[in-house]
Amino acid sequence: MAYMFLNGKLIERTKGKIDVEDRGFQFGDGIYEVIAVYGGRPFALSDHLDRLFESAKKIYMEIPYSKKELEDGIHRLLHVDKREHCYIYIQVSRGISPRNHIIPQRISGTVIIYLLDPIREKENWKRRGIKAAITEDIRWLRCDIKTTSLLGNVLVKQKAVEKQASEAILHREQRVTEGSSSNVWIVKDGLLRTHPADQFILNGITRKQILAISKQQRIPYVEQSFTVDELLGADEVFITSTTMEVTPVVEVDEVKINEGKPGLLTKKLQWLLEREIQSQCFDDASPFSLK
Ligand SMILES: Cc1ncc(COP(=O)(O)O)c(C=O)c1O
């Protein structure tokens, strides 16, 4: 049986009910996190909870629980729903109030936590790489907030799917921002490059891990945006996210990257991230831990 937390109560997932006037439902007025679980243990949990509270602050919302209470809830859920590899979905919407755009005062947020299954194709995509489609970034100007208002992301992903691609790589004018649900990286002449963490992208937790790993390993990198032409002329391209980890991009529109094969640095970073996951979720004592 699958369980969920709804406002602090552990219930069967099918029994969860949310009011039609919940602002998450009517306005997309909410925030969320997706956290990977390996070996039954959450990866980078405190980074995800920090980002959840930062997102809340940016939309003037109070989360009705402390980080510690959310952490305890997550561990209880993992205890009853025993799964080795899955994802924790945590969403906080502003709560229930008669429909009106104005932010209501003194209402309590609706908090749900439940577990998601891994993407079926993940391992295959990680090994062989994916095809991506270049698409205009039609989203708003606060992409740094991890909000449940995801219609822009949904529409660009759909465009990619219509082109038989697995991810949309987005651009504003000539500048590449990020993917519809991932951060985008290029490698050119040994230099790793990704968009700076400003309001045009989500500052991914996996992005943060890769930057920390690169620093530790002395892999040269810059947080600097690149153009669509630079993307197409890159030696290697890859995306990062909680659900896709480090996934090579081997074709962008009709252009093959690295002759259609995952690049060497991409594979190295894939392995280094797996090692970090191993050290955080399987063997605490590892000297390689970034924590
Ligand atoms: C738009 C967007 N950018 C980047 C990411 C990657 O973030 P993370 O590594 O924290 O999963 C995501 C993840 O869902 C996303 O939706």
UniProtKB/TrEMBL annotation:
Q: Which UniProt keywords apply?
A: Aminotransferase, Pyridoxal phosphate, Transferase
Q: Which GO terms describe its molecular function?
A: D-alanine-2-oxoglutarate aminotransferase activity; pyridoxal phosphate binding
Q: Which GO terms describe its biological process?
A: amino acid biosynthetic process; carboxylic acid biosynthetic process; D-amino acid metabolic process
- Claim: DNA-binding is one of the keywords in the record: no
Q: Which domain of life is it from?
A: Bacteria
Q: Which InterPro entries match?
A: Aminotrans_IV (IPR001544), Aminotransferase-like (IPR036038), BCAT-like_C (IPR043132), BCAT-like_N (IPR043131), Class-IV_PLP-Dep_Aminotrnsfr (IPR050571), D_amino_transT (IPR005784)
* Catalytic reaction(s) noted: D-alanine + 2-oxoglutarate = D-glutamate + pyruvate
What is its EC class?
Answer: transferase
Answer whether the UniProt record assigns the keyword Transmembrane helix to this protein: no
- The protein's required cofactors: pyridoxal 5'-phosphate
Might you give the EC number(s) for this enzyme? 2.6.1.21
Gene3D superfamilies (alphabetical): 3.30.470.10, D-amino Acid Aminotransferase, subunit A, domain 2 (3.20.10.10)
Query: What GO cellular-component annotations does this UniProt entry give?
Result: cytosol
Q: What do we know about how this protein assembles, alone or with others? A: Homodimer.
Q: Which family does it belong to?
A: Belongs to the class-IV pyridoxal-phosphate-dependent aminotransferase family.
Supply the NCBIfam families for this chain. D_amino_aminoT
Name of the featured protein? D-alanine aminotransferase
Tell me what organism the protein belongs to: Fervidibacillus halotolerans
Taxonomic lineage: Bacteria, Bacillati, Bacillota, Bacilli, Bacillales
